[in-house]
């Protein structure tokens, strides 16, 4: 005789509608039948199509209502409906005493039961637990064992029974047996091992309990081939088990399916990815190439079958491997979001090598530059003392970001350029190519300094010992691997910076001036020649202003570049009429 009386229900919800922000579902009373389940699916829209022609084919469960203690807590949102019906049918087929037995086991906090499969198996293992109904407390238990256990046959204890502490006796019995008092009665394990009658597979569900089709109809591929796209990584192909649980595992949480492409594919992502602060991954774009959404966290690209997600075909795998090939970073410019392709260190080195095989020219674009993200194109150039320098603008940000300057080979020379080849920038470039007869420290070269990360060749590198000596006569700087520098104010700063593996620098102009103090003729010529390549002992030009006398009060190179962007320009206009932001790329 059925005993559940409607106390086992689940709210079955249309997953596609839920992902669109609409809760469409219905309470289903278990056990049910296949015909009734089909009617529910029709009412909640499973099998119908959305406005884009995509079929609503997935469902999940948003709530449970079960009067048996602990059952609802063990059931998840993506439980199989056939398994739920299997459990409900087994419970409904029990007698009243068997159901009370099951309830008592659940009330006791059975360690063997952890999920839906275990609940089904418990219905086959009631005999592994002794159940004594109507035992409300330890006193009841102590009296039950005393009288039913034959201790007082023929009333041999007589009136002494009134002096027995049955509560203490009952509690000791429960402790020794590992038993538990429940609302339904007393339950204790027999110690026998469980019989795993149900192995947990869908194929092992008896046909009479199925509500979504027979076992033959459920024969489907057990795996599917998908494309996995992780943040900052190239996509890769992976074969995963079929089913929603596997998809959840791959994206690390509840899934959301979106269909941004005309091809029969789905993008499966973490529904709470942005709320959980997962790293931004790839942009989704409309027909005009404009970004309308950004996927956070790892996502999958899957194929679509008639009623579920499936494997991608080889052609689709190749297509979307290319679509999501390049990792992206994101930045906000004004009121719009832009995506910047991320070039891996290996790709960047290869690109730089390829680009350096040909000279940079006025048509160069899409060029990767060591130390900067994204790619660049030329917008201006300038000849200085026989060397050509190229002003580069970012391909993505354009005028919204500062420019950089590279040499003929594409090597970075200066960053943070705000006003093109202005007077201050030209002065720095002159020092870049200025010749020096003697280095302040022969143990380190300019090339080694650039490999360290400091790119301006107008600075001569030094290690600790040489820096301490040069500081006696010249202003020196702490150099950093991010292409910045800081003024050294005292000897302690030298020791501290050197201890961290740092190196030092002195500007070429200062160093050359110091060397020439011992050679008045060269010193005079250095202050008068336009072309540093013409230092030959003969003054070839008219008198010029001696800028080496302005050594006092010097600021860092980066500060000089930044201050130049706000200075009034008195010579020919810069190629940039609008000021650039200080976005570092």
Distance, first to last CA: 75 Å
The proportion of strand residues reads 15-25%
**Tally of structural domains:** 4
* Model regions low in confidence, pLDDT < 50 over at least 5 residues: 215-219, 529-555, 568-584
Helix content: 25-40%
The Cα radius of gyration reads 39 Å
Shape category: elongated
> Count the strands?
25
Q: If helices are DSSP runs of H or I spanning 4 or more residues, what is the number of helices?
A: 17
The major pleated sheet works out as:
6 strands, antiparallel
Structural class: alpha+beta
Give the overall average pLDDT: 82
Element layout with pairings:
Blueprint: E1 8-14, H1 15-19, E2 25-29, H2 34-44, E3 59-66, H3 81-92, H4 96-107, H5 116-122, E4 129-133, H6 138-148, H7 166-177, E5 180-181, E6 185-189, E7 223-229, E8 236-241, H8 244-251, E9 255-258, E10 265-270, E11 280-285, E12 291-296, E13 299-304, E14 309-310, H9 314-323, E15 328-333, E16 336-341, H10 345-356, E17 367-368, E18 375-384, E19 387-394, E20 403-406, E21 412-417, H11 423-433, H12 446-452, E22 459-462, H13 464-470, E23 477-479, E24 485-487, H14 491-499, E25 503-507, H15 508-516, H16 520-528, H17 557-564
Antiparallel strand pairs: 1-2, 1-3, 4-6, 5-6, 7-8, 7-13, 9-10, 10-13, 11-12, 13-14, 15-16, 17-18, 18-19, 19-20, 20-21, 22-25, 23-24, 23-25
């Amino acid at each position: 005789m059925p005993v559940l009386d409607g106390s086992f229900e689940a709210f079955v919800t249309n997953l596609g509608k839920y992902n669109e922000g609409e809760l469409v579902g219905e309470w289903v009373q278990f056990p049910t039948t296949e015909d009734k389940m089909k009617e529910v699916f029709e009412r909640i829209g499973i099998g119908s199509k959305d406005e884009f022609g995509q079929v609503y084919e997935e469902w999940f469960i948003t709530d449970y209502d079960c009067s048996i203690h602990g059952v609802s807590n063990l059931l998840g949102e993506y439980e199989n409906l056939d398994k739920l019906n299997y459990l409900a049918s087994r419970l409904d087929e029990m007698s009243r005493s068997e159901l009370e037995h099951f309830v008592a086991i659940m009330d006791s906090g059975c360690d063997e039961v952890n999920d839906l499969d275990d609940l089904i198996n418990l219905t086959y293992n009631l005999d592994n637990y002794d159940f004594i109904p109507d035992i409300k407390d330890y006193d009841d238990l102590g009296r039950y064992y005393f009288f039913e256990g034959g201790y007082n046959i023929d009333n041999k204890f007589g009136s002494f029974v009134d002096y027995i502490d049955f509560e203490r006796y009952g509690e000791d019995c429960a402790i020794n047996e590992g038993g538990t008092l429940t609302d339904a009665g007393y339950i204790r394990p027999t110690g026998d091992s469980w019989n795993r009658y149900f192995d947990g597979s869908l194929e092992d569900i008896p046909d009479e309990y199925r509500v979504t089709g027979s076992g033959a109809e459920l024969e489907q591929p057990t795996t599917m081939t998908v494309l996995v796209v992780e943040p900052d990584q190239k996509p890769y192909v992976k074969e995963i088990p079929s089913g929603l649980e596997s998809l959840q595992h791959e994206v690390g949480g509840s899934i959301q399916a979106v269909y941004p492409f005309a091809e029969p594919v789905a993008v499966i992502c973490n529904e709470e990815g942005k709320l959980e602060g997962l790293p931004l991954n790839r942009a989704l774009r409309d027909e005009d190439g404009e970004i309308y959404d950004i996927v956070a966290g790892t996502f999958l690209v899957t194929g679509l079958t008639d009623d579920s997600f499936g494997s991608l075909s080889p052609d689709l795998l190749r297509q979307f491997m290319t679509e999501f090939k390049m990792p992206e970073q994101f930045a906000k410019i004004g009121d719009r979001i832009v995506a910047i392709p991320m070039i891996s260190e290996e790709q960047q080195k290869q690109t730089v090598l390829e680009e350096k095989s040909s000279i940079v020219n006025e048509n160069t674009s899409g060029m990767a530059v060591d130390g900067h993200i994204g790619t660049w194109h030329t917008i201006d150039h300038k000849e200085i003392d026989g060397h050509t320098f190229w002003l580069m603008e970012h391909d993505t940000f354009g005028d919204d970001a500062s420019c950089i300057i590279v040499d003929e080979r594409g090597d970075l020379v200066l960053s943070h350029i705000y006003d093109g080849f202005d007077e201050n920038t030209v002065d720095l470039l002159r020092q870049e190519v200025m010749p020096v007869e003697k280095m302040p420290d022969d143990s380190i070269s300019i090339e080694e300094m650039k490999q360290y990360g400091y790119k301006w060749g107008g600075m001569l590198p030094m290690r600790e010992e040489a820096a301490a000596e040069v500081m006696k006569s010249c202003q020196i700087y702490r150099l950093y691997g991010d292409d910045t520098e800081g003024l050294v104010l005292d000897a302690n700063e030298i020791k501290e910076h050197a201890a961290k593996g740092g190196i030092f620098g002195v500007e070429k102009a200062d160093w050359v001036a110091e060397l020439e103090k011992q050679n008045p003729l060269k010193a005079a010529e250095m202050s008068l020649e336009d072309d540093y390549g013409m230092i030959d002992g003969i003054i070839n030009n008219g008198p010029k202003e001696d800028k080496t006398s302005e050594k006092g009060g010097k600021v860092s190179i980066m500060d000089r570049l930044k201050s130049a962007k706000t200075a009034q320009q008195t010579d020919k206009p810069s190629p940039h009429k609008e000021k650039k932001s200080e976005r570092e790329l």
